[in-house]
Amino acid sequence: MLSAVFYSLPSISEFIVDVVVGSPQEDIRDMAVRQFLLLSRTPVSPSECTGHQLTPRQFLLQTLLKARLPFWVSSAVTRGASYRSVKEQRLLFADDSVH
């Protein structure tokens, strides 16, 4: 049930693509990829996979496969409105082992 809430967050697909592809900072992109990889491996109970409910792995794959990315980017801004928040994602994806 919690995964359905995550999937329905406003602009979550755009946010995922923005962080993984659009962040100008390599450490943020790397940490995001690691965190989304962990999310994709999250075990899901059989009761959550009924009907049209996607597993975390299926949701992330679908999001990345449907992302429209430019072939050539002449500036740091590659996506939509959520780019502004990508600049501040260092705190969200900070490595807990450092603290």
Short description:
Helices cover 52% and strands 0% of the residues.
How does the SSE layout of this entry go?
Blueprint: H1 2-7, H2 12-22, H3 26-40, H4 56-66, H5 83-86, H6 89-92
Bin the helical content.
40-55%
Low-confidence stretches: none
Q: Helices and strands: which structural class?
A: mainly alpha
Secondary-structure element string: HHHHHH
Total E-strand runs: 0
Plain-language structure description:
- It contains 6 helices and no strands.
- Helix 2 crosses helix 3 (26-40) and helix 3 (26-40) packs across helix 4 (56-66).
- The model has no long low-confidence stretch (mean pLDDT 75).
- It is 52% helix and 0% strand.
Short key terms for the protein model shown above:
mainly alpha, 0% strand
